[in-house]
Amino acid sequence: MGAGAAGMRRNVEVKARLRAAAAARGAAERLGGPARGQVQGQARGRAQVLAQADTFFRVPRGRLKLRRTPDGRGELIFYERPDAAGPKLSCFSVTPTDDPDGLEAVLAQALGVLGVVRKERLLYLVGQTRVHLDSVEGLGDFLELEVVLTEEQTVEDGERVACQLMKELGIEEEDLISGAYLDLLLAKGESGS
């Protein structure tokens, strides 16, 4: 199975409300290896601590966001995924920027801003899965799984991995949410700006 649309990277994602953040953190600590890779932040146990601010722009399809990090850098991220609860395919492209202020100004003028999501993310790596424990400003605590698919893996392979991790992390069907954090903020009448 190849890459997603036009060479985009693929993962299978799950997003859920956390009813017991401490228990989920303990389970992620037991399951995960040390966080590694090109991420910015401090370590907390086996987790990488990431402070992120995501500015979402109006686009005709998918979602486009500029993610800012405390080191003054950013990433422009475009993704497409269904707004459905449970494991789902996400196809995405990421490009780094050393000028997030300039990029945001141009994108805001051209497209308009939908809103901003601010969060503290604990990142754990469990096999091929990025486990995120997110504390989202104005919303509370959430868990996100990103099962990073290899070229050979099918969506169904990723769904099996996600479902197994959901069990191990104590995530129930009723905890699952659809959409993005921005959708939840907008539903509350907040834009996060």
Structural write-up:
It is a single chain. By secondary structure, this protein is of the alpha+beta class. 23% of the residues lie in helices and 40% in strands. It has helices spanning 21-31, 100-111, 155-168, 181-187; strands at residues 9-17, 42-44, 47-57, 63-68, 74-80, 88-97, 113-126, 129-136, 140-148. Strands 1-6-5-4-3-7-8-9 form an eight-stranded antiparallel β-barrel, surrounded by four helices. The protein is globular. It starts with 8 loop residues before the first strand and ends in a 6-residue tail after the last helix. The model is unreliable at 36-40 (pLDDT under 50).
Short description:
The protein is an alpha+beta fold and 193 residues long. It contains four helices and nine strands; from the N terminus they run βαβββββαβββαα.
Features:
globular; single chain; 4 helices; 9 strands; eight-stranded antiparallel beta barrel; 193 residues
**Element string (H = helix, E = strand):** EHEEEEEHEEEHH
Helical fraction: 10-25%
Using the CA coordinates, give the radius of gyration.
16 Å
Largest sheet, strands/sense/barrel:
8 strands, antiparallel, barrel
**What structural category characterises the helix and strand content?**
alpha+beta
Multimer state: single chain
- Given the C-alpha coordinates, what overall shape results? globular
Largest sheet: spatial strand order: 1-6-5-4-3-7-8-9
Helical element count?
4
Low-confidence stretches: 36-40
Number of strands: 9
What is the residue-averaged pLDDT?
A: 89
How far is the N terminus from the C terminus?
40 Å
Provide the β-strand percentage band. 35-45%
